[in-house]
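Q: For a teaching handout, I want to show students what a protein-ligand complex looks like in token form. Below are the inputs, and the small molecule is adenosine-5'-triphosphate. Please produce the holo structure.
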Amino acid sequence: MRMSNMLITTLREVPAEAELPSHQLMLRAGMMRKMASGIYNYMPIGLRSLKKIENIVREEMNKVGAQEFLASALIPSELWKESGRWEVFGPEMFKLRDRNEREFCLGPTHEEVFTSIARSVIKSYKQLPLNLYQIQTKYRDERRPRFGVMRSREFVMKDAYSFDKDEKGLDEAYNKMYEAYTNIFKRCGVDCSAVEADSGAMGGSGSAEFMVKSEYGEDEVVFCDKCGYAANMEKAPSTAEKAEKEEAKVLEKVETPEVKTIEALINFFGTTAKKFVKTLIYKADDKVVAVMVRGDREVNEVKVVNKIGGAVEFELADEKTVKTATTAEIGFAGPIGINSDYLLVDEEVANMYNFIIGANETGYHYVNANYGKDFEGTVGDFRNITSEDKCPKCGNKIVIARGIEVGHIFKLGTKYSEVMGATFNDENGKVKPLIMGCYGIGVNRTMASIIEQHNDQNGIIWPLAVAPYQVVVIPAVIKKEEQMEAAEKIYKELQDLGIEVLLDDRKERAGVKFKDADLIGIPMRITVGKMISEGKVEFKLRNSSEVEEIEISCIINRVKEKFEETV
Ligand code: ATP
Ligand code: MG
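A: Here is the structure, written as tokens, with adenosine-5'-triphosphate included.
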């Protein structure tokens, strides 16, 4: 491509709205432009990288025997009503009506669509296993679109759905996807870890998220360097700390006026947060859930939701609900006499002695509370693991880091096939529900993650496999015939070899051209300057500061060598 003909939309200024390096760079390098909140248009240069990532995904999917498919983004509501998700999905789903008032949505994901296809085409075990995938546009009205295409409202997802006759088949499909994902991210130059993830209240037998470490990540991930354990915080089990044994004392109500927070309680009683138990009141759809954890702990909402069998809406209760449940102002909730549908008690609390709890009466707390003696509830693991906890697998030290999910693989089992009646006849003629798995990769999010991990102060440093162009040839002064001729010749030879090459024939100073090449992140740069009179050109890699002077006759080989090194 001749850059004089190309739509170049690079920006010199850092766009004010972008915090994340990848977001800034995608805008500055002219990869995309924002159209509305969480909605972006890809420019030609950005689209090239996006398509390359898609192709890597496609190749690796095909390699493990998945078949490409393409479903419509517009989905009739009936399918979602069958699965029960029309209401459950909530405001994240873009809903619309046609001219006849028939309801549709713009697909946020496609489990229902693929299950309905499987239901209509799969009759017998002989057609199994089957794995269908698509690379397609998804729509989600995210509560907080941000970080550019990391969390946008329209994005490209590769989603695959596997259908098997038994659990063994599902395990194989899942393992193949795990391998394919590992290869995809490796080929894209994304350093990420597969971590154990929550599989929801319905169980599901396994789930892994592919996480990129980033301080901007919205997930917290638990890692153990010793044994390699890695899990999403939502999933990682905590181990109850055993308090030192004490004789149980008599429960006593104490007046604590205006003492409503843990900090205020610590001051009032002159003790530590480990001696308190807080009772948090949540609203889970129309149910009230009280959860007790030690004063210095955080409730793990995913563990709580799983314990109560799932909830569409789950959040801390409003003031009115708290007042009804506790018959007190906020700040005095406790387990004794609480009016809630569930009372969940973290294991650690059940192991404490003589602790302080709210009295469900404004201005009062109880001291010397003991589980079993003074109150009872459902005991379990309801708190977040902390960096002071031990690795759930090997007992060594753990590290907690923030991460961004780029991919997710999930054993669905019969969750959709049962409710939607997607069945097959097994070897004995028995009708059984299909065993399913689903597997997603965010293509745009992967692109942003690549940039997040490959950049410097001058711009993007694309790995060769996903660079929009692989080589840029820059004649330093286009008016100098000798330079221009040599540049044209190199450009042509590289093109003939099938290499994706740019010729920067714009009427700009060499400095400007270098800046743009660096910002866009072209992996190899060939500069034809003064030295052409001695038959030499300059060769520079974007990821190195070294400039090699090379005989013009050797330059093509040098480029080819670089390709060979990378493959
Ligand atoms: P998150 O927790 O980040 O919202 P999710 O659990 O909703 O992700 P999935 O439904 O598993 O995501 O979707 C599969 C993949 O699609 C994710 O791993 C991610 O890479 C991508 N993805 C999800 N939501 C978005 C979004 N709003 N913008 C860009 N990519 C997204
Ligand atoms: Mg989401």
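A: Two things your students might notice: The chain is about 25% helix and 30% strand. The first strand starts at residue 32 and ends at 36.
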